Amino acid sequence: MIIAIRSGWRELMYRLIIIFIWVFTVALGQSALAAEKTTSEISKYALIMAGEKRFDDALKIIDAQSDSDKNTYELSFTKARILTWSGDYQNARNLFDGLMREYPNNADVLVSLAYMEFFSGNLDIAERYFNRVIMHNPLYLDAHQGLERVVKTRQNAALVQNNSSREIIKCPSGYKLRVNGYCHKET
């Protein structure tokens, strides 16, 4: 009888160890999924804030993440886009350059970089990036729309230059007018 109790005890301990290992493995798997989901949620939340023109708050949310999370493709790409929208083209360009080194033919990065160049007034560079995307991804709608914007901006600039009664566009203090007709923060 004592032998039966001892073997029952061993069986119970063996089962408890198996259950512990299984729970621990599942918990690790879920924490990895949670971290991925968290990064995605952080990105979405930051983009919502940026859509509300709360650029500083959006950037603070991304910057508050751990270095390993901040350096993921998703958060780096999101931060570069938010910097572009806020008018901080130099920092956006630095992030896009890093993304381009890691993902040289990523159409999303190229289109966002092209728009950043467009908004900063570099129409030739923007056009090259849009054309590069279209060459590799002929159905990429954003690239075609961006290229159309470049063409229309050039046409509008030509009309303004040829128009003798040219209207003067005034930008608010701290902003300057770019070739594309938009007012942007001075850097």
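The record above closes out task 2.4. Task 2.5 opens with a second protein, given below.
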Amino acid sequence: MNKLLILRIMIVICILIGILFTIIFVNRIGLPYNTEGRFFDASSGVVYHKQAILVYGLFIVLALAICVILFYFEKKIRNNKEKLRNDVHLFLNNHWILLIFINEIL
């Protein structure tokens, strides 16, 4: 597979993970926690802890940092590809002119 395609897939996955943690973070920050930092959801029987909000926030920051790093590598690979393409075009254009010149001489 192409490196650029793999990087773009990884970027999309990283963005989706960041969105997932953001949704969880926003939902959990609005819960009415008691003085011990717990919220009991009677319908599902689950206890949510206030300390988990910090962890979800850190996961959001981590996902954002990974996305920035992946964007950097994607841009670097894309620029190298364009530079290589420009070098090849320049090489071919220079040799094309040389071949025309040699053909006219002969």
